[in-house]
Amino acid sequence: MNFLERLYGIFFQPVETIKEIVREKPIWQAVVVIIVTGLLTVTSNYRFTMVGTDFFTSSSGMPDVGRLRALFVPMAVFGSIFIAPLTYFVYAAVYHFLAEILEGKMYAKVEDNVSFDQIEENNAEIEQKASGEKEEVVIGTAKGLYSAIGFAKLPMIFMVVVNLFVRLLNSRAGLILTYLFLAIFTVWVIVLEIIAIKENYKMSTGNAVLVYFLPYIVLVVLFIIMIIFAGATFISIFSEVLKNVPMQ
Question: Which site from 12, 123, 136, 194 is most exposed, i.e. has the minimal number of CB atoms within 10 Å?
Fold first, then answer.
């Protein structure tokens, strides 16, 4: 597949396309998708591009909103170009580690007389590399996962159309429509990313779902523990203060 075929396949043949992506590992094409999707989504947002006449001015005693907005614009563009690809690198690293823990297939070697189709049917083939009399079949690579989850972000490009359309609506209706479609496209992206994990490591759907959501589960658990600890500390301190208050 070429780049345009992969873009088309993500929408209309996602499983087959992701299988091809994790095999070929077009990592730089994935970076382009991440950057372009992020830039178009952010810059098409009405609240992002809306600039008042006080762009470089501020009222007495009020924060300089114009200057803050002017600072936010290059920060958002910088984030889309540099931070987003690096963030996906961290995602791929974390998911690769968790997939290995959950016994995702990381590599395999087969004899030269095993055909490409036979390997794929046995869920052991992703990429073939000639190596003397044998074929080395490499599967479950972090590079393949990065490429796949990068392309999985592509449905977010439709937020550009949504952002342009909500300009025609009133503020409340536009906000509701924006969050509605954002939720829909986010679920779409999540499904594609789970497929990417499943196909890259030849895992079951259940394990792929667990790998995807496990980091978020851990963060939620840690947050709850921190809240409980902070609450217990506050109660302990408050109790000590009450003990030292003289009673009349």
Answer: 12
